[in-house]
Structures are given as C-alpha cells and as structure tokens.
C-alpha cells in the first residue's frame, strides 16, 4: 500500500540543521525509527524517509540529517538549496546552539532568496531540566522576531529521549509547508528583482 | 495584498524612489554574516591574521619544547596541555563554543598569551580546530591523506591497520612531510589518541574524533574531490563521501599514531626495514597508487558481493549510479568503490566468474592457472579498447602489488607492470595470496554484515592504542547488529503502514534501494548467484 501511495505523493524534503551535538540525529531517528539511540556518532550527512498521514493527507517525508560542526559548513548551502522545509534544532542546555539558530535562519533566507520560508525551531533536550540554560521565553522571543516577516516560522520544545513533541514538530512543519504552498508563498514572497535592467 | 516584505521594507529602507532605483538588498546584514561564516568555515587562506599563530606557516610560528619530541608550535602544546586535564569531558571537539568567546580566545592565543586556566575546554578545542583549519598547509599532505584513505578502505577486511602503520612509517618522513609538520602531527595525534582512550567517559572514540577533526586535519572538504579524482582506486564521489573517506584516514592516523614515531628523532633517519624497502621499490615500479591497491580491489569486490546479498545502502541523493551509494560510515570509501573498474569487471564476471581469482580469489575453488587465460579471454563488453585498458590496469595494479603483510613474497615478487619492462610478467597467481584470503573470508563477511547493519564506523580495532592485535570485531558490534536486526524484523512485520519507515533501510539508516533488472549491478549479482527477485524494480 505504501508503495502505491508513495508513488503518487511527491516527497517533501525536510532538512534538519543546527549546531553540533544538539540532537538533530536523535530527533530524526526518534521520528523515523521510533528509537532513541545512545550512540554518539557525529553525523556527516544521513537521509531518512518516512510516510505518514498528516491531517488525513498522505505525506512522504525525505529527511536529511546534517552535520552541525563548523568544519562541514561548506556543505550547508548545497543541501539548503534542496530543502523545502527546515527544522532548526538547538539544545536548551547549550547556549552556543541557540546563538547559532538566528544565523542559520538568516542563511536559509539567503540561500532560498526568500523572505519567508517554512521553518520550525525545535528546542531539544527539555528532559534535562536541571541543565537548562535557555528559557522558553527566550526562544519564543527569537521566533516571534522572525514571525514578524515570516509567518511560517514556529517554535516547539521537544525531547528526543522521551519522544515529547517529536511527531508534532515534524507534522507541524509539514503543515507549515502546506500552508506556505497553498498561499502561493513561493511566488508572493520572492524578492523582487531589479526592474531597471 | 499586504506582504510581510513590504512592511519590512517601509520600516527599514531609504525612501521608496531610492530603493526602487538602487534595489538595495533588503537586509544588508545577511551579506556580512555570510562572509563571516565563510571565513570561519573555509580553508584558512581567507583569514588574514596579524598574530603569531592563526593562518601563519608552521615554520614561522613560535614553538615550545615538548619532552621527547622537540619543538612543536606553542599554541598546539598549550591547547593540548589545557585539554589534557579535561579529556573526560563529553563531546570534546564535538560540541562547539560560542562564537563571541571563541573570537576572544583566538585573539588571546594569537597574542601569545596562552590558555587561561578557567577557559572552558570546548572553547580551547574549537580554537585548536580553527588553528588547524587555517594553517596554510595541512598537517598531513593531501597525497598521503589520500593513500591513507585507500588504506582505510581496505583496512577492515585485510589487516589490523598494518597497512596504515606501514604507510605512515614509510611515507611520513622528512622529504614528504616537513619535520615541523611531523612533530606537530605527532603531538596532536598522541593527544587525540589519549582522548580516544577515555572514550568511555567522553564518548569520543577515534572515529568520532576523526569526524570532527578530520576536515581540519586533512583539509579535505574542498580538496577531497580533486584528490579522489586523482586516485586510480577510488571513484569520484560526492563531497560527502569524499569527506567520509578522508575521515576514515584521519581515524587511522589517530589509531596508529605510534607509527609516526618511527621517525622519532626526525633528524636521524634510520634505514627502514627491508620488507618495507622492497614494498617501496614495488611501488615505484607502477605509477602513483598505494601499495593497497591490490587488496583494495579485492576487498571492494568481495564486500560488494556480500553486501548485495541483503540490502544495499544508498541514499536517495546518490542514485546517479547504482554503485554510488553514499553512507555515513567511514567505509564509504569501500562501499562505493571502483564504480568504473567494477563496470569493466562485470564483463569479466559475466564471462564465467573467472575474474574473481584475478582479484584475489574470492572464490578459491575457481582458482586455477586458467584464470589468467580467462582474464585475457574476457570479452570487453563496453568496448574493446576500454576492456584492454582495464586489463592493463589490472595487470599493472594488481600484478606486482601484494599486501605488505606477506614478507616472503614481497621481496621476491616483481611487478609485471607494463610500465616496468625490466621485469618479466610473472603469472598472476603469484600475487594472489590465497592462504591469507580464505581463512579470513568468513570473518570478514560476518564483520561486513555487522557493519552494514550497525552502520557504524567500528570495524577497525576498537582500542586506539593497541599495537595491532585488535581483532577488528568487537562484541559491541555484534550486540548492536543483533539489536538492530531485531528492529528491522519488527519493522518488516509491521508491514509499512503509516508508522513504519517508508523505506526500511539497512539497519537504522539506509533506505532500501531497488535495482533495475537491466543494470550492471543486477548483472553482476546475477552472475554471482546473489540476486533475489525482491530486490529488483518491478
């Protein structure tokens, strides 16, 4: 069954980005395999695929899990060009990851040459309440700042370990993308080109 | 229609008529930010620095004496010293430091102030990585890195890093690597090995370290494509694969750093052991490839065949060729090797599976003197010229190259390379070491299967400091393999549905890749009798 459906549905390319060691792979694996892996392998690049129903509509997700380390930033633009929706992950226990969120979102706008794009910001590792150093309000504030000009941006707190909001974050991202496509966002928000030349 | 774009523009931009004329970028900040990011991530040349360390040639940097090693760059010594007391920190070298703090630390280091006692270890690790990235020359020359990558591709199947150690001992010496580079490299690798020894607490084993540090150490993200294009063994790969390949090389470097110590006193170069010398002569006979080419090809084909029995790793993005499966593990080099060579080999395999002994007797029963004849009689399917070229390639590459572990044959065998007419071409059987290959075969398969399922980079010997006695197959691997296989079975039983992974990849990571019945891969598998109809595209 999944075969016939997956043929008819175009896959949605989701790119998971964020600083190193914030739990991008954990989140992705929890979503796609329903497992929390205790491995600690830094990712270079992995891809997963999963089909599911979101709002009674079939969706085939191609999820690209990327490297967070600075050394791999040269690969970033390449996959950003391919992505249709982005999941920006940071860890609520890690200030660096949070600081990076803003610049990553800016980079998405830049690479996509759009002012608005479906972006989900996920504050991961909220099971580690004791080590928490990024408040929910802080993250909300950041996202609200972006929402002023990008309505397709949202924030969710997740825990890959306890599977809290893991499905929700991916599903909401797909919803955002659908909304974006339905509004013709791709045409509307495209930066206007020089009219003189 | 009120677009968010309009709102923003009216708020922040100059008057409408000006904006219309000039079309100023609506957010000029982006540009700068991007530049900043580039300068951080790129290969150092773009970062100009007036300081003592960052971006300066190694020879010009102030040094410190390290007991037993000599002068190494002061920054390296200081960072390693500082980090030495924090080796148990989880994610050392993986977790990054806030940029603001990093900039400050760089300035401090560049001024020669050293590392403060209270500096967080992750900052120091990040600074060290940045320093490595920005060296005008990478610590390990790209050519050697490439050879190491080739060694890494075969390392798991063939030996316990003997090839890598041999390579390091042989190649990492003053003419190719400058003494200052060598000392720095050795100091760094010793330290990394120390970190890896504490992997139980910091969770950074040699592979993980290599993934994080490899790009800085071997400087390959940009150069890898060019390097792998130059390699006769490894096919051109996506940047991502090339990175994985060279990361494997970095892992070997960390594991076998003792081999670097063979040139302990860099000034006094002791004569190398005779077997190694012989190997060296053999190398010079054929062109530029590594001594590992023979085994690489053999292992790659064996691996390819055994892999294809179950599922094939392959990402959706790498479907240009059925061979170009990209993978996260450092064996990407071995997983997607030899696409072009294999294509030719398919022709040979189709002609009666007689090419297998040619590349090392994966099929010992078929090993007969007829093999050479068969190889000669192989119809060159794609076109005759290509087939001939391939045969020449096999002869020149495989004929005289044997694994460095068999010292008896290495001294006597002469390369029947076409480029060295002085030595008469000996029979190919001379170069196939069946005694080494056969007993290891089942273990290798087991290991490979396990690696395939686990998808990890753990095939090499686990303990970074072991002198070479590691079995290459740890209990942890098998446990992981079993666990993951269980998972897979569950998934399969669940029969898709909305919850199941749409693709059901190898182990936990790889989507299933169906192959077309007419593809080269299918033909190769069919000729090996390994093709099940479930794997074919409808």
UniProtKB/TrEMBL annotation, chain A:
This is Small monomeric GTPase. One of its GO terms (cellular component) is membrane. It comes from the Eukaryota. GO terms for molecular function: GTP binding; GTPase activity. Keywords: GTP-binding, Nucleotide-binding. PANTHER family: RAS, DI-RAS, AND RHEB FAMILY MEMBERS OF SMALL GTPASE SUPERFAMILY. GO terms for biological process: signal transduction. InterPro entries: P-loop_NTPase, Small_GTP-bd, Small_GTPase, Small_GTPase_Ras-type.
Automatic annotation (TrEMBL), chain B:
InterPro entries: ARHGAP11A/B, Rho_GTPase_activation_prot, RhoGAP_dom. This is Rho-GAP domain-containing protein. GO terms for biological process: signal transduction. CDD domains: RhoGAP. SUPFAM superfamilies: GTPase activation domain, GAP. Residues 58-261 form the Rho-GAP domain. Residues 491-507 have a biased composition (Gly residues).
């Amino acid at each position: 069954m999944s075969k016939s459906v997956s043929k008819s549905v175009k896959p949605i390319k989701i790119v998971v980005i964020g600083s190193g060691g914030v739990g991008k792979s954990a989140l992705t694996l929890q979503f796609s395999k329903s497992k929390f892996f205790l491995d600690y392998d830094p990712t270079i690049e992995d891809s997963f695929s999963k089909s599911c129903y979101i709002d009674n509509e079939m969706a085939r997700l191609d999820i690209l899990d990327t490297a967070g380390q600075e050394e791999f930033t040269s690969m970033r633009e390449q996959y950003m060009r391919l992505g249709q929706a982005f999941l920006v992950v940071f860890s609520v226990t890690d200030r660096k990851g949070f600081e990076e969120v803003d610049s990553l979102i800016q980079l998405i706008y830049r690479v996509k040459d759009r002012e608005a794009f479906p972006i989900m910001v996920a504050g991961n590792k909220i099971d580690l309440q004791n080590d928490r150093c990024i408040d929910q309000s802080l993250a909300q504030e950041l996202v609200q700042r972006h929402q002023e000009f990008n309505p397709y941006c949202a924030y969710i707190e997740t825990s890959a370990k306890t599977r809290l909001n893991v499905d929700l974050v991916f599903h909401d991202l797909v919803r955002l993308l659908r909304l974006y496509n339905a509004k013709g966002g791709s045409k509307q928000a495209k930066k206007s080109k020089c009219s003189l030349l | 229609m009120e677009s968010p774009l309009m709102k923003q523009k009216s708020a922040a931009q100059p008057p409408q008529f000006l904006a219309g004329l000039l079309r100023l970028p609506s957010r000029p900040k982006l540009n700068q930010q991007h530049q900043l990011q580039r300068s951080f991530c790129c290969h150092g040349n773009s970062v100009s620095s007036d300081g003592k360390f960052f971006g300066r040639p190694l020879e010009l940097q102030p040094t410190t004496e390290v007991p037993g090693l000599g002068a190494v760059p002061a920054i390296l010594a200081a960072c390693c010293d500082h980090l030495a007391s924090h080796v148990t920190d989880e994610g050392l070298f993986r977790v990054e430091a806030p940029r603001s703090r990093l900039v400050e630390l760089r300035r401090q280091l560049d001024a020669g102030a050293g590392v403060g006692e209270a500096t967080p270890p992750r900052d120091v690790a990040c600074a060290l990585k940045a320093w490595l990235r920005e060296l005008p020359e990478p610590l390990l020359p790209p050519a050697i890195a490439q050879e190491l990558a080739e060694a890494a591709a075969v390392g798991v199947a063939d030996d316990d890093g003997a090839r890598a150690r041999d390579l390091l001992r042989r190649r990492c010496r003053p003419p190719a690597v400058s003494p200052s580079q060598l000392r720095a490299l050795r100091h760094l690798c010793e330290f990394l090995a120390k970190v890896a020894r504490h992997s139980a607490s910091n969770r950074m084993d040699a592979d993980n370290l290599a993934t994080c540090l490899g790009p800085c150490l071997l400087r390959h993200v940009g150069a890898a494509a060019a390097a792998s294009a130059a390699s006769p063994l490894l096919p051109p790969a996506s940047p991502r694969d090339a990175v994985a390949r060279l990361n494997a090389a970095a892992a070997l470097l960390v594991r076998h750093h003792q081999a670097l110590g063979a040139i302990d006193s860099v000034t006094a170069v002791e004569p190398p052991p005779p077997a190694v010398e012989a190997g060296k002569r053999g190398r010079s006979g054929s062109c530029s490839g590594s001594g590992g080419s023979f085994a690489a090809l053999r292992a790659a084909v064996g691996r390819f065949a055994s892999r294809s029995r179950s599922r094939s790793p392959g990402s959706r993005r790498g479907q240009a060729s059925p061979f170009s499966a990209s993978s996260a593990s450092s064996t990407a080099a071995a997983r997607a090797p030899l696409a072009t060579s294999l294509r030719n080999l398919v022709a040979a395999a189709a002609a009666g599976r007689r090419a297998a002994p040619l590349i090392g007797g994966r099929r010992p029963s078929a090993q007969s003197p007829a093999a050479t004849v068969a190889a000669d009689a192989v119809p060159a399917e794609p076109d005759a010229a290509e087939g001939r070229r391939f045969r020449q390639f096999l002869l020149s590459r495989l004929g005289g190259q044997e694994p460095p572990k068999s010292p008896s044959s290495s001294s006597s065998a002469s390369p029947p390379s076409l480029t060295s007419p002085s030595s008469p071409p000996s029979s190919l059987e001379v170069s196939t070491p069946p005694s080494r290959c056969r007993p290891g075969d089942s273990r290798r398969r087991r290991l490979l299967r396990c690696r395939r399922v686990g998808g990890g980079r753990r095939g090499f010997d686990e303990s970074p400091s072991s002198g070479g006695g590691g079995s290459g197959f740890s209990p942890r691997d098998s446990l992981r393999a079993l666990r993951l296989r269980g998972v897979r079975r569950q998934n399969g039983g669940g029969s898709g549905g909305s919850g199941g992974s749409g693709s059901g990849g190898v182990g936990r990571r790889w989507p299933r890749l169906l192959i077309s019945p007419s593809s080269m891969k299918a033909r190769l598998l069919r000729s090996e009798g390994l093709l099940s109809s479930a794997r074919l595209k409808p």
